[in-house]
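Thread: quick sanity check before group meeting

JM: Hey all, I'm pulling together slides for Thursday and realized we never actually wrote out the predicted structure for the chain we discussed last week. Dropping the sequence here so it's in one place. If anyone has concerns about the input, flag it before I start.
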Amino acid sequence: MGIPISAARTVPGTLLIPLNGDRLIILRVMQTAFKAGRSSTPIGRPGGPISATALQERHVVGREAGLACAGTMAAPGWSERVRELLRRMNSFHRAGLRIRQLYGLIRLAFLLGSPKALCLPFVVAGLQVGHVPHSVARRLHQYPAVFSVSQGDEAPACLELNKQLVSFEERTAAVQGVLKQLREQEAFPCLKEWREELYSVMPYFCDTPLFSMERAATPLLGVKRYGTHLNGYTWQNGEMLMWLGRRALNKPTYPGLLDNLAAGGIASGLGVRETLVKECQEEACIPAFLAAQAKPVGTVTYTYVGAQGGIYPECQFVFDLELPEDFVPQVGDGEVQEFYLWPLHKVKEAIVSPDFKPNCAMVALDFLIRHSYIQPDEAGTADGSQKVQDNGKLRFDPTTVFPASRWDRKRLLGHA
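JM (edit): ok, ran it. Output follows.
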């Protein structure tokens, strides 16, 4: 975190980078080096090799320090907190996109230390479908009948599904078999949340699925997950109000946090609209005929790194539904404990609070922008919360949050 220079001088094993006056970024210097045929040169020496372990630690510590040093000592405003929400939900690319702010060795360290650079592409039938952390790849490499790490003369290393597995059924059975063994071995924490629910794996949503796998294991392979989210709203005395739900305390993820009115992942074999109607009925007891009136309004797409190191590329299909004034959602399957009908100013403040599930907060934020509750001039432009007008729709311009332009702009803009 950011500390005064006088205090930092006494911290051993750190590299001190002046930033924002007398504040510092503290980057711990690891003295390990790459093992692949290179000499062990201290990291602090310019030109010396940098280990993946060191870069990961630099990324984590440097990221926290950058946030602590980025502004003044005053509490961040609403726009700055929105910006941090967007950064957090795109943390997979974040370090690499912030390299322009630093120079020399640290510029290189931030580039190589991005989570994406520390993963192997996951390839099936010649198509990349995910990103795999090295720790996961090493474990999966122990199952050569299913997974292998390939290295061509020109192509970079990748984790590849065995080419002998040619059908959807063969691939699904083989991958599920490995995942069940890893679950029994308690190899990865995410497998404790096993749901017996399969997600389809393909490069893009419109592509034919290559195989299916257990939902809880998808962060291990960094494959894209798809879901549906519903913004439910109504009008009272000329004022727009929004329905929100609070997640049950026994939910395996984000228990007790605010959520959209209805939401859920798209399981293998189900369609977008079918999933939406199902989740509306199960979670909020919204009748099928009413849920069918929901209007598709776009997607919200992001990729973040979970607390346990898993990779979460997600695309949420977003729907808006105007509900009758006298309609009150009811708790259905127990995944939601209660519902609230809030004015939009209260929703706006909740979005940047720790009380809101982060991806659902972005869906609600998108709603406020599209319905012109948040205006382009309202938040200003200095803090990165700019919006751009495009085909009549307001949306966030990711280049104001992520300065680099070499990433796929279409994906950052939320196109599936």
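AS: nice. Residues 1-72, 96-112, 380-416 have pLDDT under 50 and may be disordered. DSSP finds 13 helices and 17 strands in the chain.
JM: adding both to the slides.
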